[in-house]
Design brief:
The complex is a heterodimer. Chain A is mainly alpha-helical. Chain A has two domains: 90 residues, RNA polymerase sigma factor, region 2, helix turn helix motif (Rna Polymerase Sigma Factor, Chain: A, Orthogonal Bundle); 83 residues, Arc Repressor Mutant, subunit A (Orthogonal Bundle), CATH 1.10.10.10. Chain A has nine helices and no strands. Chain A is elongated and about 50 Å long. Chain B is of the alpha+beta class. Chain B has one domain. In chain B, strand 2 and strand 3 form a beta hairpin. Chain B starts with a helix and ends in a 13-residue tail after the last strand. Classes of the chains: A mainly alpha, B alpha+beta. The interface between A and B is large, with 66 and 60 residues.
Chain lengths: 175, 288
Amino acid sequence: MVAIAGNVVLAARSGDATAFATLVHVETPAAYRLALSIVRSPVEAEDAVQEAFLRAWRDIRSLREAELWPAWFRRLIVRSALDQTRRRPRVREVGLELAAEMPGLEPAVQPADRLELIAAFDRLAPDDRAILALRFFADLELPDAAAALGIPLGTAKSRLHRALERLRAQMRQEP
Amino acid sequence: MKPEERLADALHATLDPARPLPDLEDRIVERVSIRGRRTVRFNPRFGVAGAAALLLVVVLVPLALSLRSNGGPATGETASDFTSMPTSVPTTSTEATATSAPTEGLAQFHRDGLAFDYPVSWKLNVVEVNEHYILVLDFLGTGLGQVICTAVTPGPSDHFVSGVECPMDFKVDPGQVEIRLEQLVGLADRGPIDPKDAKALASGDEYVTVGGQPAIFRADGRADSASGLTLSWTLWAPENSRFGGTSYLLTAIIKAPGDAQMRAQVEALTASIQYDHYQSPAPTASPS
């Protein structure tokens, strides 16, 4: 997460659209990647980011302190991404959409075991992807990952454990 | 390399280069400005201590134009703070006259230091939301505009989200107009509006006069677009409460068809705005 000046958040909270646009500019790239880690579709990731910012603009007055913005907004991103997966459940060819649209993911430039791992990750349920992405992509400590998911720490621990088990199981299966 | 490390490596390798389409930020900003939740800007005169935002929201939602012919007062306007007074007397506003506002009956709103007339066929929903994490919520009447607050129950590790979330989205169908009135305090308070201060205006803003006081007007979008035409007035009422002046934000969204008539009604409403002038209660003789 990029550090956001507290006065920008305060100004956005007071209704300053220009300040909020600054937040959009600063946060969008990382927000997009986090959403993409959960929804696994560039289109849905963009939708999730848009939805998260609209929710943020709508509800930013409920943000008590400016320094809580990163965690608060991260939670909106995760919630919006998970909403996307629930709103439009569909079966997709694992990895193909990402591979076609994301630089760096072309099979030719990725080691085979990395592709297998990502393919296994893609086959997980969104909730599993979310906890794994928050922990191992966003590099959050588990309490912060739990907060982003809106679940108790104990639940996050068990969910992370089960997600890793399922990831290993996926990797043992043929795609 | 441990499996967790391999996963982190794989996720970073595949996601770090990912970029959204270049226009995503613009689309988001556009959608936010279309929604126009608030257009006021940070007033540095107020410190963090003033951030306790007491937000009073009143949502006025009219019936669809097709229901207009039903006439009659909107239901639910039974609170003592409101008087529904069907009348054929048009507003005395020159602005309303100039825009050929319809002459259907008018109801009167008078509350929180503010008074204005609105078409009697419109529905009035009264919502009071105390954003200082204490919720007081009232609905009077029915309509499409409403604030639905949901309690946010924090988990044991959830130390940053609590209280209540109150989405205040407009819900405007084609052929409808919706007005939201907010009272702004704390950081949102605009304070006295100085029409000589050009720097206080954002692009697209203009100074107007409402209720005999300077105000800021802004129009965004088009009535025939999906998001509709958004009109907003930032108002300042001096000395209308025992606490001093009050900032208001009145936002209207209009969607075609029938937008010309609805805009005339909205402009007639704003032209009829009057601010209360607070007077200290006369001392009463206490029994000796």
